[in-house]
Q: What sequence folds into this?
């Protein structure tokens, strides 16, 4: 059942991958299966799903996605707790990368951050602007952010890198590292895998479940320091465990003051 926006469910129809959601697959699953990757970005498996495929897939489901998930109160309380901790630690501004219909951008704003959203899908951006007219939402891709170096106090990437082909993820993380100011924070939420990187038939388009340790290694290779990793079991409506990493860009080294 699709919850109405008036009666906000205290269950969490988290992610369009649960058995109980009604969203249909809208694009073919074209990815390859993933063997255990060796260390290093070069060894990451490739996928034939393009960014254009992902954009088209999210454009097609944007209205339903907003109806199912477009309210932060529908998120799992533990997820909201992690986002609140991130909001406390991050500086301004915060970019909500892959913001979807903008509910977490609004949530970060309510938590006191100056936040704006970026999403690949024009339909998502239209919905976000309509729902939160006072906030800024830009169309764009995490693979090439139109933001100056060191300009952000925080980046939230909440289930938005799940479709990134594994071999492209190091580029996305390098982009996040570039735009974060020294000391800036990243909170990345994702589907977790207990063992190996696994592609799966997410109902919008092909997605990946990452072992958190492997993902943490990629963040570190991008120059970020991982401060915390958290995981939880799937809730009633979820298929998979969920995980998240909190990381920071190291502060700029102090200049030697001399003797
Ligand atoms: C599963 S939804 C998550 C939306 C929102 N963060 C949430 O937690 O509900 C994934 C979102 O990431 C966006 N996305 C996927 N790849 C992206 C990219 N390369 N750059 C920007 N947004 C992207 C999709 O358009 C979609 O809105």
A:
């Amino acid at each position: 059942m699709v919850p109405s926006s008036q009666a906000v469910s205290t269950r969490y129809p988290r992610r369009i991958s649960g058995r109980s959601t009604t969203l249909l697959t809208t694009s073919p699953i074209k990815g390859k299966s993933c063997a255990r990757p060796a260390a290093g970005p070069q060894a990451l498996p490739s996928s034939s799903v393009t960014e254009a495929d992902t954009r088209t897939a999210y454009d097609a489901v944007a209205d339903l996605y907003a109806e199912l998930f477009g309210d932060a109160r529908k998120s799992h309380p533990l997820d909201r707790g992690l986002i609140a901790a991130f909001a406390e630690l991050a500086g301004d501004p915060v970019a909500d990368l892959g913001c979807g219909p903008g509910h977490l951008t609004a949530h970060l704003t309510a938590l006191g951050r100056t936040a704006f959203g970026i999403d690949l899908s024009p339909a998502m951006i239209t919905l976000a602007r309509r729902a939160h007219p006072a906030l800024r939402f830009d169309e764009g891709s995490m693979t090439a952010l139109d933001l100056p170096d060191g300009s952000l106090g925080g980046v939230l990437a909440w289930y938005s890198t799940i479709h990134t082909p594994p071999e492209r993820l190091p580029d996305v993380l390098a982009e996040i590292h570039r735009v974060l100011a020294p000391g800036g924070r990243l909170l990345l939420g994702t589907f977790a895998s207990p063992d190996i990187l696994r592609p799966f038939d997410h109902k919008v388009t092909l997605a990946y479940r990452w072992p958190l340790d492997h993902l943490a290694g990629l963040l570190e290779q991008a120059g970020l320091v991982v401060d915390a990793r958290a995981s939880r079991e799937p809730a009633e409506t979820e298929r998979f465990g969920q995980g998240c990493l909190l990381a920071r860009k190291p502060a700029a080294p102090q200049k030697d003051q001399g003797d």
Notes: The longest strand covers residues 180-191. The mean pLDDT is 85. DSSP finds six helices and nine strands in the chain.
